[in-house]
Design a protein that fits this description.
The complex is a heterodimer of chains A (407) and B (178).
Chain A: E1 6-10, E2 21-28, E3 31-39, H1 46-49, H2 55-63, H3 72-85, H4 91-120, H5 123-144, E4 153-154, E5 157-158, H6 167-189, H7 192-198, H8 206-211, H9 216-221, H10 228-231, H11 248-251, H12 258-281, H13 294-303, E6 305-314, E7 317-326, E8 333-337, H14 339-343, H15 347-351, H16 359-365, E9 375-379, E10 386-390, H17 391-406
Antiparallel strand pairs in A: 1-2, 1-9, 2-3, 4-5, 6-7, 7-8, 9-10
Helix pairs in contact in A: 2-3, 4-5, 4-12, 4-16, 5-6, 6-12, 7-17
Chain B: H1 6-16, E1 22-32, E2 37-46, H2 51-61, E3 65-73, E4 77-86, E5 95-104, E6 109-111, H3 121-131, E7 134-136, E8 166-169, E9 174-177
Parallel strand pairs in B: 2-5, 6-7
Antiparallel strand pairs in B: 1-2, 3-4, 4-5, 8-9
Classes of the chains: A alpha+beta (407), B alpha/beta (178).
Chain lengths: 407, 178
């Protein structure tokens, strides 16, 4: 009997993703034989837009590259400009930057945990974790003025200080997360159904992760101890003991599957709490920005000549920005790269051999701000008949699989 | 594992590659935090013919982490910068290495590095689409970031006549703005 495969395109619209994607799956029975990726449906030409803006204006553009990583891109961009123009950031600002970046990591990882639970069919867990996420968003609003798009980064420092009166509120929120952490850990790591759905699913071997240049929790779950906060510490991370988390800390083994990616992210929430506490304990006094006067700063940047890279370990992995200043109002080049860009290719080995019902959780496992799968077309090659699966149908399939296990 | 110092890596490049391969080199040392711990960034400008050899050289030291390729239109030339890092995974050891090369617009060709680092495919395809650089040895795949029906011969990030023009759309007409 000849082997008939069917092709399933998924996408292209993923509203919550920087780069909405189309996935073309070749399916044999229930199993995925081949995957083709086609991103770029929502390429906004942000780097091109940057050509008409001065570096300070670009900070706010960079902030809007991603709705979740709204501290990561400005962090990397500011570092790139500071490196290019030779600006030294005051120590206090370095600590405040790290506090904001780590608060962002907490809310991003909890958001991801909720979405992953939703994809598996545990909607009460989604509500539980997103309720928990509200606390850190409220804290960010208290510190910066906004729940997202904080607008706190400035070239040479930060725009708002963390005052003595604000510190007890931060500590209170951290205590809340310490309380809830045990609950989260129990729900995600001890639940037999989650383990059944995620263990040995979507495996990315260490070798593949290296070859395909994976970054962030995706790489760490495959056993690569790569974390810029550890390898090339910047800002306050240089003073703190940050260690890249691999899943063997908890489970004693590294499989590189979806479960391991959950382990890494859950443990990183605890790590972030520790980092923020250390920052608060050692917060140095002094200025929060290298140059207070904006006009003076812009003039300085206008006269600057040089190039620089800025890297930051975002919740999803390495963000890297490259900036070249050439004695002009606008930078000559601005290149931004988000972590999902590098994790894109690692989807292929993860998805091949999996079932259709596992697509949502495997795609979600690298945390691409998650698959809001718009629609799925199943094309029957024999008679050219098209049937369309909506996002809801796909989700239903995933939920059914979980129910099948629990029953 | 033995870690080479940044100046040793630059020396290695000068020694192993052809005489004129390394056109410019620069080592930056940056500090961070209260303790002022330092890290290094290496910038190397290579001859286009020697770029792949340069990547191979990194490959021999350790499988490098590849980040991205930045492109820049310099007028008569296009500059490509390959951002790598070495010695990741160990505290304070990681060194960023940026290999840049300048291609003349008459001969916009560069060999692919995907045979060494498969993860570089997305970045190479982006450079091909945005700057019109032919990547030799890269399979002819459809557009990755630009729409499939994007006009041929227009490369959005070029700053010359092949780049995109600013357009103003009115009710019935489209006006090109300089």
């Amino acid at each position: 009997m000849s082997k008939k495969t069917y092709s399933i395109p998924i996408g292209p619209v993923h509203p919550s993703l920087k780069e909405p994607m189309t996935f073309n799956f070749e399916i044999y029975g229930e199993h995925i034989e081949r995957v083709n990726l086609a991103p770029g449906d929502n390429h906004r030409g942000i780097e091109f837009m940057g050509r008409q803006r001065n570096p300070v204006q670009i900070i706010y553009l960079a902030e809007r590259i991603c709705g979740i990583c709204s501290a990561s891109h400005p962090f990397a961009f500011c570092r790139a400009v500071e490196n290019a123009a030779g600006i030294e950031v005051p120590e206090r600002a370095q600590y405040i930057r790290v506090i904001i970046a780590e608060l962002e990591r907490i809310h991003s990882h909890i958001l991801w945990a909720g979405v992953a639970a939703h994809e598996l069919g545990f909607d009460s867990v989604l509500y539980l974790s997103w309720r928990a996420r509200e606390e850190v968003l409220d804290l960010l609003e208290y510190l910066t003025g906004n729940r997202i798009n904080y607008g706190i980064f400035m070239i040479g420092g930060v725009r708002r200080d963390i005052t003595e009166e604000q510190i007890p509120r931060i500590r209170k929120t951290l205590e809340y997360y310490k309380d809830i952490f045990a609950k989260l850990e129990d729900v995600f790591l001890s639940d037999p159904t989650i383990a059944l759905r995620t263990k040995k699913v979507g495996i990315l071997t260490k070798e593949d992760a290296l070859r395909l240049c994976a970054v962030g929790p995706t790489a760490r779950a495959s056993g690569i101890t790569k974390d810029i906060r550890q390898d090339q510490p910047y800002a306050a991370y240089a003073d703190l003991e940050v260690k890249a988390i691999t899943p063997d800390v908890l489970t004693g083994e590294i499989n590189g599957d979806v479960y391991d990616r959950i382990v890494v992210r859950i443990l990183e929430i605890a790590q972030s709490i520790q980092i923020i506490e250390q920052c608060l304990d050692n917060l140095p006094s002094g200025e929060i920005v290298a140059e207070k006067k904006l006009v003076k700063l812009l003039n300085q940047l206008k006269k600057a000549k040089g190039e620089g890279i800025g890297r930051h370990e975002a919740p999803r992995g390495e963000v890297i920005h490259y900036v070249k200043l050439a004695e002009a109002e606008v930078p000559e080049v601005w290149k931004a790269r988000a972590p999902t860009y590098n994790n894109l290719m690692s989807w292929m080995p993860m998805l091949i051999g999996q079932q259709i019902a596992d697509i949502p959780i495997v795609i979600a496992s690298i945390d691409p701000c998650i698959a809001c799968m718009d629609r799925v077309t199943i094309l029957n090659k024999d008679n050219g008949q098209k049937s369309i699966l909506t996002k809801d149908d796909l989700h239903k399939l995933s939920v059914q699989k979980t129910r099948g296990i629990t029953r | 594992m033995e870690y080479m110092k940044p100046d040793e890596i630059v020396e290695l490049f000068k020694e192993r590659l052809d005489k004129n391969a390394v056109m410019d080199s620069r080592i930056e040392t940056k500090t961070a935090g209260i303790k002022k711990n330092a890290y290094n960034v290496i910038w190397l400008q290579l001859n286009p013919q020697n770029l792949k050899e340069g990547v191979r050289l990194l490959y021999a030291i350790q499988f490098p982490h590849f980040a991205i390729i930045s492109g820049n239109d310099l007028g008569k030339e296009i500059e490509l910068i390959y951002h790598f890092s070495l010695y990741y995974g160990v505290r304070f050891k990681e060194i960023s290495i940026n290999l840049s090369t300048r291609l003349s617009k008459d001969n916009l060709k560069i060999p692919t590095i995907t045979d060494l680092i498969p993860g570089a495919q997305t970045a190479e395809r982006e450079i091909k689409e945005m700057f019109g650089v032919t990547i030799e040895g890269l399979p002819d795949l459809p557009n990755i970031f630009l729409p499939q029906d994007f006009p041929q011969g227009i490369f959005p990030l070029r700053k010359d006549e092949k780049g995109v023009k600013m357009k103003v759309e009115r009710k019935d007409e489209v006006i090109e703005v300089e």
